[in-house]
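Hi team,

Filling in the usual template for the complex we talked about on Friday. All components are listed, including any nucleic acid strands or ligand strings, so the model treats them as one assembly.

SUBMITTER: L.P.
PURPOSE: interface mapping
COMPONENTS: two
RESIDUES: 876
SEQUENCES:
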Amino acid sequence: MSLYIAHANEASHQEFDFGDNVDVGTFEQILDMDEGEEDDGHEFSRSIVFGFLEQAETTFVKMERALKENDLRQLSELGHYLKGSSATLGFTKVKDQCEKIQHWGARKDETGSNPETDDKKNLKLINESLKKVRENVEEVNNLMVKYYKQLEGEE
Amino acid sequence: MILRAIARSFFSVIRFPPRKQPSAESNSTTDTSQAASTPVGQVFVADAAVRKENQHGGTTHSDTPRHTCDLLPTVADSPAKQPITDPISHPTPPETAPAYASPASPAPAASPELSRAPESSSSDKHIYVRETELTSLASTRPSSLSASIDSAPQICLPTSTSFSSVVEPVQSAPPSHEIEIMQRKIWVRRPGASATLVTVHDDDLVDTVRDAVLHKYANSLGRSIDSPDITLKICSREQTNKNVPPERTLGPEEQIGRTLDLYYAGGQTIDEALVIEVPQKRTPRPSPRVGTHHPVVYPYYVEDHRPGEGAREYFPPMAVHSPHLSQHPAHPAQPNGPHLPHSMAVLTTGQLPPLPSPGAHSTRKHGRPKYVRQHTNLNKPTVNGIAPPAPLPTPPAQADHRPSITPPNRVTSPPPGRPKRKKQTSSQQQSTRSTNGEPPRPSKVAPVGLLDGNVPPINVLIVEDNVINLKLLEQFMRRLKVRWKTAMNGREAVNTWRTGGFHLVLMDIQLPVMSGLEATKEIRRLESVNGIGLGLVGGQNADGKRNGDKEINPEDKLSDMNLFKSPVIIVALTASSLQSDRHEALAVGCNDFLTKPVGYPWMLRKVTEWGCMQALIDFDGWRKWKEYAAKKDEGLSEEQKKAKEKEEKAKQKAALKAMFAKPPPGTTNDNASNEDKPESAGKPVVNGTSNGPTRGHKITRSGSGSAIMLETHHEEADESN
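RESULT (copied from the run log):
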């Protein structure tokens, strides 16, 4: 399914297809928080979006380190951490992966409802998930770069 | 003089049409005092006749000065001279309320209620004024006369005349309307307390009196004991009855009127009030609101005083203020029935039932309006704030699986700094869904609520470890035009809170160093130790130093108590939508929760609501805080401030309860019905203080706020195009 953001803006009714990477409603809220009427009207959302992307990158680095150290607990916390911000921005795919990482790190199955004591399995799943989430973030990054370029073009 | 006395006491039993109340009341005030001081046994009024007469010629009696000097025959004649007013044209207007303000007033003489006779028969046919010789009649009067017929208008005798009035209908009256009962008022008191009057029938048994007593003491006694547990003691006047023991317990089977007359010839005075004694052992729970042994379902005050929306169905104004209608004659046939016959009788006869005086407040009779109200309540359970009870401070939030409060209506007051962007509807719905983790709710247009989007200038502490989320929340605060500080972990949160001046804490639950739950516990503990929020209402604790003399661990002591006027509101930010997490958050002392990711509308709503509540709780403190805030205006926009630590238990509920213990004036009714519900502590008080019915409101309105927002955005879009 495709979700669109339509800007009922003065001049343009442009739409941007984020695919299923972004929960448009949630992301809209971020955009809603943009203050500026004049100059760069998207500074806040831009800062928060790209702030997240940076945060994701550093988190991934930490996750990889924790993976090497087999530190499940740390992985779970990192998963939770990134889950929080990705959920805030509506980056659903990222969020879903992070949630799984959180659960596996907490020695549970991917839904978080049942214990999963096989640490090797958990680490393996996290490793796979980390790759996926990196891809997702990359995808979102591209979309956002494109999106903000488009916004600037409008302005 | 005797004639005057007669006239006066006569007055005291006459009910005046409401519109004449002022003059009647002023007159009666003096009468009452006089009567009370001189128990006049010689005043006898054929009350049935008076009643009759009064019912039809009520307006004539309002001519107070005339009756003060006129004699009874004149009174009796007056209806004949004056056009008989249509009984239905005397709806008891709300002005009856003043009379109820002092139900224990010794002589409800100026009772504004209009007696409505079911049937307008020749008004003066039963006027018989008997003098002293009727005293004996009183005791010989067959008790069956008044046993169960309550259709008559109730006459409230001044206490001083106790049993001095006797009905003696001469003509065989139509049974349904003409057989009347005597009512009498009896002084009772609890040991050491002031006396009060209860109204019973003259030939009622002591047992019935106990019912009436229980009714009167609906709060202090009625909630915990049943009427058979009450013991009534009578003290004899030594000089009159030497053969009676000075004090004895009345048996339930005794006829109260007879006993009183025996003991207190000439009438019971206030000093001779029956003493109410109750057993020390109390039933574990408030007795259910069913009837006592008496076949009549006994209504308690709790019900009486609810706003009577439903009462309008039949008798608009009187329903609210006159809970003690006489029973209809048809009543004994179906004591516990739905009482429809009452209404039917009225409908078919076209007559309104007679209204008793306000002094008849504690009569065992129940009035139609109560039942109407009860039916109404059954039909509309959310009316009167009867929300589904919930054990934890935020019932609505628990009741449904998402934040219970809809975003306020932005139409009325758009937040400052409007976003440039205008959004389409679908995206808004999306946001609603994602915020709640649930599908979008049906769009309903909410009425313009109390919270119109004006956010009080509160100080918010945001506790969130993720900088991205923190940034967004800060942006929310910026948009809400409130001040805020931030903390990145639980410990920091506690320490920042300790600096004082916060009204609202947005507490992420999963935090490093110290979790949000622990931080909440710690804050509640410190509040409790420092006595924050205890006895705040009413400005009793204005200096905030009440607990200063108590032993407080120095490290727990808060530096400036003036900055802690009331317990801070803690809204948990929970990532999971699991009910258990929420319960846990509420259990440690959070007042509310928001599910992450937090959407702006929800944030707006919560901040507005809780902020308003904080302002309402302690207005004085609020003002002081504002002064303080003005001084300290700097440093506040500083984001990311850090501080220190601590941890422990919570006592938020107690604190909140104390805080809310005093109902705001004018909302006592609501509070009366709320107080016995567990949720009275905590959030619902927002409703209690600001608007009673909001709780139900809130629930039913759930989801509508976002609908409003959608519309708003639509409009904006249209405008801008």
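MY TAKE: The interface with chain B takes residues 3, 5-10, 23-26, 28-37, 41, 44, 47-48, 51-52, 55, 77, 80-81, 83-85, 87-90 of chain A (CB under 8 Å). Chain A has one domain: 4-144.

Thanks, L.
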